[in-house]
Design goal:
Elements: H1 2-6, E1 10-14, H2 23-33, E2 40-44, H3 45-69, H4 72-78, E3 80-81, E4 89-90, H5 92-102, E5 113-120, E6 125-128, H6 133-141, E7 150-152, E8 155-158, E9 178-182, H7 198-206
Parallel strand pairs: 1-2, 1-9, 2-5
Antiparallel strand pairs: 3-4, 5-6, 5-8, 7-8
Helix pairs in contact: 2-3, 3-6, 5-6
Length: 208
């Protein structure tokens, strides 16, 4: 008990990425296997989605959950082309899928508090530390204006990538004593399977 009270509080900050965030799955699994504890996991865009999957599924099931979500079939289902006003894709199917995975779980229920930086439709960034994890996951995944924004607390939010980025400096007002910032330096540019709806695949392949 004494060691828990006296130890430094740690924040893990994951670089804001889209498709390159796949590398964080291995990192989070290794962290878990080594029993490295953190008090906060701060990220945005797909990086937040990956970290939320890790917290929901655990190291043992992360790989299968990851492959299922990023499968060609599921990605195509998430891209619901119904041409809503001002957008190409509706977000309803993505939100429902995230709700199936997360249920009614809220961010504040996790041992390592997930912190998510999102942008509203006016381009203002905000850090969320509470609320339904399914909504935060869906919003971190959608790109504006391709997708409808995800409604959170009565306002529309989306990932904001690549303009909205995370930094350890954003957490200086938290109780974290140590900050671990992890970035990806991938020499080979990842490509998205073009069997995923061409417009969305082209967006991901050119927006990194």
């Amino acid at each position: 008990f004494r060691s828990v009270v006296s130890r430094n509080s740690r924040a893990l900050v994951l670089q804001s990425l889209d498709k390159d965030s796949v590398f964080f799955a291995g990192l989070l699994s290794a962290f878990d296997k080594a029993a490295k504890s953190v008090d906060y996991i701060y990220s945005s865009s797909y990086s937040f989605f990956i970290s939320a999957l890790y917290q929901l599924l655990g190291r043992e099931n992360l790989g299968e959950g990851f492959r299922r979500f990023y499968s060609r079939e599921q990605m195509n289902r998430n891209c619901d082309i119904t041409f809503p006003e001002k957008h190409v894709f509706k977000s309803g199917k993505l939100i429902r899928y995230c709700e199936e995975m997360a249920g009614s779980k809220r961010a504040e229920m996790f041992g390592s508090l997930p912190l998510c930086r999102l942008a509203d439709t006016e381009g203002n960034a905000r850090i969320f530390s509470s609320g339904k994890i399914s909504r935060l996951m869906a919003a971190s995944f959608v790109s504006f204006p391709l997708f409808e924004p995800v409604s959170i607390q009565g306002k529309g939010y989306y990932s904001g990538f690549p303009l909205v980025q995370v930094s350890g400096a954003h957490l200086y007002r938290t109780e974290a004593d140590e900050f671990i910032y992890v970035s990806v330096r991938n020499r080979e540019k990842l490509k998205v399977d073009n069997n995923i709806i061409d417009l969305y695949a082209s967006y991901l392949n050119t927006n990194s």
